[in-house]
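Can you give me the bound-state structure? Components:
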Amino acid sequence: MKNDATIDIDIKRAPSSKIDSIDFENLKFGHTFTDHMMTCDYEDGAWQSPKIVPYGPISLEPSAKVFHYGQAVFEGMKAFKDDSDKIWLFRPDENFKRINKSANRLAIPEFPEEHFFNALEALLKLEKDWIKKGFGNSLYIRPFVIATEPGVLASPGTTYKFMIICSPAKSYYNGEVRVKFSEKYSRAADGGVGFAKAAGNYGAQFYPTNLAKEEGYQQIIWTDANTHQFLEEAGTMNIFFRIGDTLITSPTNDRILDGITRKSLMTLAKEFNITVEERRVPVQEIINASKAGTLKEIFGTGTAAVINPISGFGYQGEKHELPKLSDSYASFFKDKLMKIQYNLAEDKFGWRHLVS
Ligand SMILES: *Cc1c(COP(=O)(O)O)cnc(C)c1O
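Here's the bound-state model for the whole set.
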């Protein structure tokens, strides 16, 4: 990753900070935003200079393509502060590569690497007081791109906005998460956009998820669109199943998001000699293992929660409970990953990036 100091970022500071009005002990995830945001326009066939401006509403024409054709992609990443006030990002080059991979699929022009890192680091330095010290505290970072061109012709826009907004976050106990294995609805199809963080992937999940909520589940684990026989991933998390002492997770493909938490966990698993089988996961195998008592854990992986243990699941009207383990892989890997993120453990794989 490059840090080209010759690119100047134009900064317009907020007249005052709202930080003193924020209750950092009781943050609702993704609800509070910091004082500033990054914005960069694509015009005349090129990305212009990034700007940092006070956080606030933006103005778009009602005909802007993003509203009609969903040309929008995003990322989710976090910044952490260690005990000596250093600010760290976790594998940010992976987020950068992925937002351009998503952009490509949605016919959005790729964003330049220097702009991304210069603007992000400038923004984080400006908002450093919003990143609280302490294990579990972080700043959630949401980069996104939208098509801004007015006009309802169904074609890719010629103007875009790349923006970064930031929200302080705490690590929460998520409560008991019960999931439903999808029997009817699908998240993604072969040849589609499932691998991309495309806005429409999420909007399309709300309705089936609401139905699952009425049945007492918090989330859905999506199955393959063709047969609904194989478990793929959750709405915002990749999924691991532990049978005996082996972890199983679906391989990534054009239906599944290539999660950074997922691949980091797989690297750590190798280091600790925990077997991870990357292969298709038949629903029936999980049901059988649950009945035989060999299914020990299911957990999701993703930037927001890092690792989210699942306490039970439902399939074809039957409810299955998972055992409560004191030595779960979920808590083992969560601790290992977070200690690297917070600069409390050796960074063997070069995952930490210092914001300097
Ligand atoms: C973002 C996301 C994930 C998790 O990716 P991370 O890089 O680990 O945060 C998994 N699945 C979906 C559908 C996602 O959108």
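A couple of observations. The chain has seven helices and 21 strands. Residues 1-5 have pLDDT under 50 and may be disordered.
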